[in-house]
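Design job #97: recover the sequence.
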């Protein structure tokens, strides 16, 4: 699914990665751990093609990441950023925003699919009629997670995907994601439950 070979990257004379290599198989659930500033979010941004100027090679979905392939690679990635302060005023717009892109319009979920994942994440469908400032941070995070999963992309990149969730909800969301055999997940996280249930932990 993903292969990083001899990656070297530095910012302002600070070495972030030095000859770093990693292979990730299809369907693996990878937890990136380590102290803040050790490169977890940077690695996710590298895999998405947002950071140029590195040495080494990165391949995603069997394609070497470069200027010619980055668009095709991104079509197959669902991305959950740590900062979820998107400029939308309603929960419905927040949930359906990824499906407004031309390439994703055919992927718009059915009512049954929405109902199923909302139930699994303990979300009320009535939330879709609310404004974003009327819901909690945990509800907002689950809404975004549900939306990304319903895109049905083969690769999910996530930066602290359960940071706003309480322990009970965190376990349910984590279990739901980890059971998806056809989904490859690379997540930067400090969540001990997520880490314990991942297939592999990469400490940076």
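Job complete. Output follows.
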């Amino acid at each position: 699914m993903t292969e990083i070979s001899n990656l070297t990257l530095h910012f302002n004379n600070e070495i972030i990665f030095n000859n770093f290599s990693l292979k990730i198989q299809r369907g693996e659930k990878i937890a990136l751990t380590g102290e803040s500033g050790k490169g977890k979010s940077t690695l996710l941004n590298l895999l998405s093609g947002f950071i140029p100027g590195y040495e080494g090679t990165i391949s995603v979905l069997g394609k070497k990441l470069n200027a010619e392939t980055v668009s095709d690679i991104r079509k197959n990635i669902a991305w959950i950023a740590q900062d979820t302060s998107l400029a939308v005023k309603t929960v419905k717009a927040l949930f359906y925003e990824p499906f407004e892109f031309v390439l994703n319009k055919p992927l718009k979920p059915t009512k049954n699919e929405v109902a199923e994942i909302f139930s699994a994440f303990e979300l009320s469908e009535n939330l879709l009629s609310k404004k974003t400032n009327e819901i909690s941070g945990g509800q907002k995070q689950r809404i975004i997670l549900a939306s990304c999963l319903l895109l049905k992309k083969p690769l999910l990149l996530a930066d602290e995907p359960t940071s706003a969730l309480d322990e009970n909800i965190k376990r349910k969301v984590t279990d739901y994601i980890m059971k998806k055999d056809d989904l490859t997940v690379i997540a930067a996280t400090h969540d001990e439950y997520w880490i314990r249930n991942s297939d592999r932990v990469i400490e940076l």
